[in-house]
């Protein structure tokens, strides 16, 4: 196992170097100058020349070499070209904890709902519970995250007034005197700062992974439950539930574990669309703004952060295989 971890860690710089070169080349081919975002107010030619010389934009090779050296030696991702008084590292320090907290909450939601629905469907095959879990999983896979977010936003806005009207009507009948009852909006629809702000975006972000986990768990358990070792365990007197949880679940969880690598990286770094819809100041929001503003340093820094997290999470999944199923040789 130590050899696997060491070899993957040694591969990490080369993979990131390729990603950096590809991203850098695409940014260099992007038309326009990042210092001149307003064509109606052109920058002074001398000022523009000094800025290009300062950042080596006239020499892409020198620019790429200096940037890579600063990242490796000083963990410095450069200055933001759009927000002149802030550095890329400051954006990462500000946005990464927000996106990570949202991702953890969304991943926990996906695991609880997905595993619960999959196990419930496997325990009662052909039952209404099984059919309902499959329908919910199909809906979760089919709906894009921004559609789920829009539905949640709509429900969060219209349900409190409807409940207020309904409760006011009921109490007016019971008491024969109209008593206005106001139901507060429990879940905020935008912003960040309290645990309640995480509920709606975490559900929207975790709905699709939960659906995939439910399908993988249901199909995996259905296949494993018909295998020889499960039938042997049942013949020795184990109940169906005990055989499923104690024996079949370990094998059926392997496809779910494979899915958790990229899913964890995606949820931990947040979603561009979800953070945009709910006005969450995470990495996704900063990444979208960096592309729109032509902020090359910010785009490069966030791409490297995203790539590193994806590789690390996939490595964690590979190592976790040995603990879930010892038969697998790393």
SSE topology sketch:
Elements: H1 2-28, H2 45-54, H3 60-74, H4 88-123, H5 128-142, H6 145-175, H7 196-224, H8 228-235, H9 240-268, H10 272-277, H11 283-293, H12 296-324
Helix pairs in contact: 1-12, 4-5, 4-7, 4-9, 4-11, 4-12, 5-7, 6-7, 7-9, 8-9, 9-12, 11-12
As a percent range, the share of strand residues is under 5%
Number of beta-strand segments: 0
Secondary structure: helix percent: over 70%
The CATH H-level superfamily is MetI-like
CATH topology grouping: MetI-like fold
Number of domains: 1
Q: Class in CATH?
A: Mainly Alpha
The CATH architecture category equals: Orthogonal Bundle
Please give the alpha-carbon distance between the first and last residues.
7 Å
Element order: H for helix, E for strand: HHHHHHHHHHHH
Mean pLDDT over the residues: 77
The rounded Rg comes to: 26 Å
Label the structural class. mainly alpha
User: What ranges have pLDDT less than 50 throughout 5 or more consecutive residues?
Assistant: none
Overall shape? flat
Largest sheet: none
Enumerate how many helices there are, as a single number: 12
Describe this structure in words.
It is a single chain. It is flat, with a radius of gyration of 26 Å. The N and C termini lie close together (7 Å). It has helices spanning 2-28, 45-54, 60-74, 88-123, 128-142, 145-175, 196-224, 228-235, 240-268, 272-277, 283-293, 296-324. The chain has a single domain (2-31, 77-324), classed as MetI-like (MetI-like fold, Orthogonal Bundle). The protein is built from 12 helices and no strands.
